[in-house]
């Protein structure tokens, strides 16, 4: 893991004003937390909303007690943070009313302007991927000559990248490797608040928290409403729709989920199988003309209010289709880097084959590889793909296991694997 400290580390708030929240919102959030969780100690409530107990959560609890919405039932130690708080009958009625307005319960949100400042401070712009880093991260891939010279400047630019070429040559693997080589860690908020609305940003499926304390400066107490993560790598495929690119409002829970590109800020957003989405490529690029150029995205709340958020992900488009069949020249101009992932040379094909069989403890045979190339590529005029060695050897192993024989690069097993893999000779 890159041990460099994040460039943005918000300090722990000392009072309510520093949180950017109003007292009523925080009291409502605390009450809903208690309503959904049951009996809680003061410090447990503070942990749930990710705010300090002293001068912040204790003030909300004092207000709720004065309004007879909560009460103290006991204590597990010294100090108010050890008091056990419970919701009264009047408090439960109020909590049900609040849940009807919004069911969001969890870490208190941060201000939109603080999120914007964090995203810009932690931008990929100015980050440098060296040739050594790229070679090390992509050492597991066999790439065509000159590929590093194309990929390196494209990644360092922070601009959009269009990967195209025949299927099975590693476009997705390259994109994933790019995500893995991004330097440093970043912090993102669990949620962002806009007026009385909450936008959930942290996504456990796509964001990988860093728990290593050495990744943070010693002795500094930071705002726990933010979480330290690796730079995100978010990939979507044919399931992508235009609705996925705007705020998702759940009419039942009554709060928002951030769109994919917002969750990808500071990292990589891969649109895989571009051109096979339910949305037309032209419509998708129309949606992103302004964000790609201005690095700002405009999102709409159900109230009609528009908010602008940073658009700071490295956007990767990957497709097996011919670029000119997807969009016109004007649109392609807005995608800065276009990189053709070509078929492997026969030398590269041999190296891939060697790595595949070595990984599976199968002895490599140059004679059998020559047989494969002659009979299943040259004679039928078939193009080699980088994925073929892996697929053929996996099929060979399946056949050997079924027959109860040792998997090896034999003509018999290779013929059986090729017959089952290739559609026609």
Q: What does this entry look like structurally?
A:
By secondary structure, this protein is an alpha/beta fold. It has 3 domains: 86 residues, Winged helix-like DNA-binding domain superfamily/Winged helix DNA-binding domain (Arc Repressor Mutant, subunit A); 229 residues, 3-Layer(aba) Sandwich (Rossmann fold), CATH 3.40.50; 76 residues, Helicase, Ruva Protein, domain 3, CATH 1.10.8. 41% of the residues lie in helices and 16% in strands. The chain is built from 17 helices and 17 strands. A 5-stranded mixed β-sheet has the order 4-7-8-12-11. A 5-stranded parallel β-sheet has the order 10-13-16-5-17. A 3-stranded antiparallel β-sheet has the order 1-3-2. Helix 2 packs across helix 5, helix 3 packs across helix 4 and helix 15 packs parallel to helix 17. The protein is elongated and about 85 Å long. The mean pLDDT is 91.
For the record, the CATH architecture of the largest domain stands as 3-Layer(aba) Sandwich
Work out the strand percent. 15-25%
Instruction: Give me the count of strands.
Output: 17
Number of domains: 3
User: How many helices in DSSP terms?
Assistant: 17
Distance between the termini: 47 Å
- Considering the protein shown, what is the CATH homologous superfamily of the largest domain? P-loop containing nucleotide triphosphate hydrolases
Mean pLDDT: 91
Structural class: alpha/beta
């Amino acid at each position: 893991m890159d041990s460099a400290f994040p460039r943005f580390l918000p300090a722990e708030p000392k009072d309510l004003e520093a949180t950017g929240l109003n007292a009523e919102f925080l009291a409502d959030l605390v009450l809903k937390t208690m309503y959904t969780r049951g009996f809680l100690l003061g410090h447990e409530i503070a942990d749930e909303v990710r705010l300090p107990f002293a001068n912040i959560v204790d003030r909300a609890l004092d207000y709720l007690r004065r309004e007879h919405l909560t009460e103290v039932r006991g204590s597990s130690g010294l100090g108010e943070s050890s008091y056990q708080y419970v919701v009264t009958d009047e408090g439960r009625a109020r909590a049900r009313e609040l849940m009807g307005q919004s069911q969001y319960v969890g870490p208190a949100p941060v201000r939109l302007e603080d999120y914007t400042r964090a995203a810009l401070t932690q931008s990929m712009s100015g980050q440098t991927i060296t040739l050594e880093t790229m070679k090390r991260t992509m050492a597991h891939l066999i790439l065509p000559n000159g590929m590093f010279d194309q990929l390196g400047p494209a990644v360092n630019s922070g601009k959009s990248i269009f990967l195209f070429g025949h299927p099975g040559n590693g476009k997705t693997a390259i994109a994933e490797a790019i995500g893995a080589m991004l330097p440093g860690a970043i912090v993102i908020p669990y949620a962002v608040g806009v007026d009385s609305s909450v936008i959930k940003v942290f996504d456990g499926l796509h964001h990988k928290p860093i728990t290593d304390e050495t990744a943070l400066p010693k002795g500094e107490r930071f705002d726990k409403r933010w979480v330290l993560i690796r730079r995100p790598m978010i990939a979507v495929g044919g399931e992508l729709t235009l609705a996925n690119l705007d705020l998702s409002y759940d009419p039942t829970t009554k709060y928002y989920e951030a769109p994919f590109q917002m969750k990808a800020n500071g990292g990589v957003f891969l649109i895989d199988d571009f051109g096979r989405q339910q949305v037309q490529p032209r419509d998708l690029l129309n949606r992103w003309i302004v964000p790609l150029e201005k690095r700002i995205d405009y999102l709409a709340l159900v109230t009609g209010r528009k908010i602008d958020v940073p658009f700071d992900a490295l956007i990767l488009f990957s497709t097996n289709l011919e670029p000119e069949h997807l969009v016109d020249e004007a649109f392609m101009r807005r995608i800065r880097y276009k990189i053709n992932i070509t078929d492997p040379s026969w030398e590269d094909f041999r190296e891939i084959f060697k790595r595949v069989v070595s990984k599976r403890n199968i002895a490599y045979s140059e004679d059998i590889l020559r047989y494969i190339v002659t009979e299943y590529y040259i004679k039928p005029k078939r193009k080699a793909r980088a994925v073929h060695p892996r697929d053929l050897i996996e099929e060979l192993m399946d056949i050997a296991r079924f027959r109860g024989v040792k998997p090896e690069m034999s003509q018999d097993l290779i013929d059986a694997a090729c017959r089952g893999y290739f559609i026609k000779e």
